[in-house]
Design brief:
The protein has about 325 residues and is of the alpha/beta class. It folds into 2 domains: about 5-135 and about 170-235, Spore Coat Polysaccharide Biosynthesis Protein SpsA, Chain A, CATH 3.90.550; about 240-315. Helices cover about 40% and strands about 20% of the residues. The chain is built from 11 helices and 11 strands. Strands 1, 2, 3, 4, 5, 6, 8, 10 and 11 form a 9-stranded mixed β-sheet that branches. Strands 7-9 form a two-stranded antiparallel ribbon. Strand 1 (about 5-10), helix 1 (about 15-30) and strand 2 (about 35-45) form a beta-alpha-beta unit. The chain starts with a strand and ends with a helix.
Length: about 325
């Protein structure tokens, strides 16, 4: 019996990108090697009408409309509810699939000797047709600090980043983490691990899931044989200050969830006190007033929400 898949897409003001993505799914799903049960679009209170008038698309489409933006992790969990498929694909709306983007990773997962693989990502191409570097190592406190101080860029051989920028992504291999833009998971694993952790509004929820899956004995794999286009940045380009704020907040959550107290607290203090000075200095050296303004907005939001963040950490500390 062919394997089955549900595709979950979280949408927020993606414009025409979502429609193009759904059209590409229609092409990629025209295969006889699997059954596409549902394509679930969870719309996080978009104001641009991007999730409207989808009736003409010839796919099993279901749309969930949130009245407020509930965040990426929560929306993904919403989309997975009631799924009965063998596999879940969490897909960004700024992706465009090729004909084999779905069939190849499913065939790979179904092979008996790959039953230890729980998560698969594929090769993503950018606007220039170049291979995007989308895999990562699990972060350590040292890797977060080296990124904060820019040491991973100045001395990459001494301070390797948790992003695998030292690898060209041209061959298939097991990795710690594959990017959430195309995140294929065995459904029963997703359910056993309780889905994405909803304290991550956006960013690092996929990395956190990959780490928890590894702790449970599952592996992640990068499949270079299958390809898709990924615009990158997506709708978050429109809200750069909020993007930076959520990135910083998720880093703090990740630190307190997976590191011991002292390194996690050091990471938070560095994020609050040292990193903004580094960011402002770099922006000033580039004479980028816009960058300075966005950084100032992001840290203003961060400082304003710090009491709630500390309370959340103290009441929801996860060993």
């Amino acid at each position: 019996m062919p394997s089955s898949m549900d595709i979950i897409i979280v949408n927020w003001n993606s414009g025409g990108l979502l429609r193009d993505c759904l059209r590409s799914i229609n092409i990629a799903a025209d295969q006889y090697s699997f059954n596409l049960n549902r394509v679930v679009v969870v719309d996080n209170a978009s104001s641009d009408g991007s999730a409207d008038e989808m009736e003409e698309l010839k796919i099993p489409l279901f749309i969930i409309r949130n009245e407020v933006n509930r965040g990426f992790a929560t929306a993904c969990n919403q989309g997975e509810k009631e799924s009965k498929a063998d596999y879940l694909l969490f897909l960004n709306p700024d992706t465009y699939l090729n004909e084999d983007s779905l069939a190849k990773p499913l065939i790979f997962m179904e092979r008996g000797f790959n039953q230890h693989i729980g998560i698969v990502g594929i090769q993503l191409l950018d606007n220039n047709g170049e291979i995007a570097q989308t895999c990562a190592r699990f972060p350590t406190p040292g890797r977060f600090f080296s990124k904060m101080f820019g040491l991973d860029r100045l001395f990459p051989h001494v301070f390797p980043s948790y992003f695998m920028s030292d690898w060209d992504h041209r061959e298939s291999r097991e990795v710690d983490h594959v990017m959430g833009a195309f995140f294929l998971i065995r459904r029963f694993i997703f359910e056993e691990l309780g889905g994405f952790d909803e304290q991550f509004f956006v960013y690092l929820e996929d990395l956190d899931f990959s780490f928890r899956a590894r702790q449970a004995g599952w592996r992640s794999f990068f499949l270079a044989d299958a390809k898709a286009y990924h615009k990158g940045g997506g709708t978050s380009e429109k809200v750069k200050a909020m993007r930076l704020f959520y990135s910083l907040q998720s880093r703090i959550f990740y630190g307190y969830k997976h590191f011991s107290w002292w390194p996690a607290t050091g990471l938070m203090l560095g994020t609050l006190l040292i990193e903004p000075l580094i960011r402002f200095t770099l922006s000033a050296s580039r004479r980028s007033r816009g960058e300075i303004s966005e950084t100032l907005k992001a840290y203003s939001i961060f400082w304003g929400k710090l009491p709630a963040l500390v309370k959340s950490i103290s009441t929801q500390r996860i060993p």
